[in-house]
Amino acid sequence: MTVYFIGAGPGAADLITVRGARTLAACHVCLYAGSLVPRELLAECPPDARLVDTAQLNLDEITAESVRAHEEGHDVARLHSGDPSVFSAVAEQMRRLDAAGVPYEVVPGVPAFAAAAASLKRELTVPTVGQTVILTRIAHRATAMPEGEDLATLGRSGALMVLHLAAKYVDRVVEELLPHYGADCPVAVVAHASRPEELILRGTLDEIAGKVKEAGVERTAVIMVGRTLGAAEFRDSHLYSAERERHAC
């Protein structure tokens, strides 16, 4: 058997990939985080599948469920919100499965920042304005940030910054980024991206904290800070330029 770490997408049930849906439909055990994964996705599971909500389970208990399925000869769909490659806590699960001799594969999904950018109708990398995107978070009660990855240090680049798990601490975000991005820097906060209850807040760095607090946004949101969010006057990409030399195949 195999454990499949499947990216369930940012929230909308139809944003799971075709591969993810097919894999889910073939697994007779499904582990999912009930607080984050849409219930509609569970309809893709086989009718007789064992469904386990992991929202209240610790790492040992989650691993035990996969080991049990392995011993029973069942494939496992481990549904994670967004994409497993960022802020998904799959690394420690993989390490446990390696130790237990349980094979696994990863099925990528649509990350929250991509869904947020789609809702904003913005490309995050704009020619001559910004070509770098930083995905990060801030340190609070959760795991501490490594040395050199604090916002003040990362902000020196001026790159488009996407912050996860930070809406509740928006005052700290503003305080640490203001010296590097400036008070007039465009900011967008997208809560519940792709879901019916999606909320978009736009503003500048010096005013966004007030808007976030007024809207009551504290979780399930991404904060985007950077000049590309407001870019209008920029050079066209070389990709489709008429000056680009093209050769017929």
TrEMBL record:
Gene source species: Streptomyces aurantiacus
Keyword Transmembrane in record: no
The UniProt record lists the keyword Transferase: yes
GO biological process, one term: cobalamin biosynthetic process
GO molecular function, one term: precorrin-4 C11-methyltransferase activity
UniProt keyword list: Cobalamin biosynthesis, Methyltransferase, S-adenosyl-L-methionine, Transferase
Species lineage: Bacteria, Bacillati, Actinomycetota, Actinomycetes, Kitasatosporales
Domain (Tetrapyrrole methylase): residue spans on this chain: 2-209
Record-linked Pfam families: TP_methylase
Alphabetical list of SUPFAM superfamilies matching this protein: Tetrapyrrole methylase
Annotated protein name in UniProt: Precorrin-4 C(11)-methyltransferase
Protein family according to the UniProt entry: Belongs to the precorrin methyltransferase family.
Biological pathway: Cofactor biosynthesis; adenosylcobalamin biosynthesis
